[in-house]
Write a structure and sequence with these properties.
Elements (H helix, E strand, L loop, with lengths): L16 H9 L3 E2 L4 E2 L6 E3 L4 E6 L9 E7 L14 E7 L2 E6 L5 E6 L4 E4 L4 E6 L6 E7 L1 H8 L2 H5 L20 E3 L7 E4 L1 E2 L8 E2 L8 E7 L4 E8 L7 E2 L6 E6 L2 E6 L6 E6 L3 E3 L6 E6 L5 E8 L8 H8 L12 E2 L6 H13 L25
Parallel strand pairs: 1-4, 13-16
Antiparallel strand pairs: 2-22, 3-4, 4-5, 5-11, 6-9, 6-11, 7-8, 7-10, 9-14, 12-13, 15-16, 16-17, 17-24, 18-25, 19-22, 19-24, 20-21, 20-23
Length: 378
């Protein structure tokens, strides 16, 4: 058996520019299938004059990862510019962000839990915690890993004065306003830089994804990073599907679980979620989202390769229709009648534990299943 070649920094073999950079920054590196960003450990991060952690989960792929930024009460980050895309979802806390555009104009907007915004590429920006008593946590999904691995030049990325005025959008995009771009179900989009509250944003029906599903795509700062939000009504779940790596799924409101598998009869992974939990399903791994709460459940997904800029051939096929086309027709979706019989039984049992009635009767013949008696909700 041939001896495996090991990384050798002296001879410059098998180098990892991004991983080496994170290690040098001195912040914790978080691995695993998923993470609860409300409780992830953070440590002082001198570069930004705040606390941070690098969240590098199994399904993140090769292009993106998350930095968790924590601001102490009344604190602010050091001003930053950087040549990589960044989409921020607020996990907790209240504060504001100031962005300076290419003309020197400053745009300040206030955010709170479940706010979503993007920093236009290489614009100078700074975050402020508006509370004197509570910390704030920001989940920052970025393309730094692919930029460092491609360029392996830190100075070019962090100290580059080139600006991208075409990425800044309209002035009112920093105020929560935007432009609605109607398309077919599942492809409708809202273009902006800032969404004050993802949990309250109006979504559009997407029946093809099942169970009364609704959805909205977000085009943020003309990014290649894609963002969308979907919601499941009470007592329902989405159809199983698979897609390329890196779609980071953030629970926004409601509680439930997601099953993930390559072969359902061999091994099934499960992630229970609530606001703050994030997980990226690995490349080509089937997964299915289930709402077991007495309220609608909404999630947010962020990945590289948008409807505007698909970036890879796999994402192009995904957005052209594979996402909501059945396996039998060449797509990546498992229709309800094709799913493993255990899936619906597990769901009914979970609903009973939570005192919630099934809303799937219009989509599945539940007479074939043992429907447990619902337990009183706590």
């Amino acid at each position: 058996m041939a001896e495996l070649l090991q990384p050798d920094k002296e001879k410059k073999f098998l180098l990892d520019p991004f991983g080496d950079w994170v290690d040098k920054e001195g912040i914790p590196r978080i691995f695993g299938l998923g993470a609860d960003l409300k409780t992830v450990e953070t440590k002082p991060w001198p570069r930004i004059d705040a606390k941070g952690a690098s969240v590098e989960l199994e399904g993140r792929g090769d292009f993106i990862s998350i930095f968790l930024v924590e601001l102490d009460p009344g604190a602010k980050t050091a001003p930053q510019t950087h040549l990589y895309e960044e989409v921020i979802y607020v996990i907790s806390g209240h504060g504001s962000t100031t962005v300076e555009d290419s003309k020197g104009n400053k745009h300040t907007f206030e955010w709170g839990p479940k706010s979503l915004f993007a920093l236009p590429l290489n614009c100078k920006h700074q975050h402020f915690n508006g509370s004197g008593t509570e910390p704030a946590r920001l989940s920052c999904t970025t393309t730094l890993c692919v930029m460092l691995n491609l360029l392996h030049n830190e100075d070019f990325i962090f100290n580059n004065d080139f600006r991208f005025p075409d990425r800044e959008g309209e002035a009112n995009y920093f105020t929560g306003e935007g432009t609605y771009i109607p398309h077919k179900p599942g492809r409708n989009a809202w273009e902006t830089n800032f969404v004050p509250d993802v949990s309250a944003f109006e979504l559009k029906s997407w029946a093809e994804r099942g169970g009364g599903s609704s959805n909205m795509k977000f085009i943020l700062a003309d990014n290649t990073l894609h963002t969308h939000s979907s919601e499941m009504p009470v007592g329902t779940y989405k159809k199983g599907h698979r897609h390329p790596a890196d779609f980071h799924v953030f629970s926004v409101h409601g509680t439930g679980y997601t099953l993930l598998w390559y072969d359902f009869d061999e091994k099934v992974e499960r992630i229970d979620w609530e606001h703050g939990v994030v997980f990226p399903p690995p490349d080509g791994m089937f997964h299915q989202h289930f709402n077991t709460s007495p309220t609608p459940a909404r999630y947010l997904a962020i990945g590289l390769g948008s409807m505007r800029y698909p970036f890879t051939e796999a994402k192009l096929k995904h957005w052209m229709g594979a996402v909501d086309t059945s396996l039998e027709e060449g797509g990546n979706q498992i229709e309800y009648e094709q799913q493993h019989p255990r899936i619906h039984q597990i769901f009914l049992e979970e609903l009973a534990k939570n005192g919630v009635k099934s809303g799937m009767g219009d989509y599945i013949d539940e007479s074939k299943y043992d429907v447990p008696e619902a337990m009183p909700a706590e």
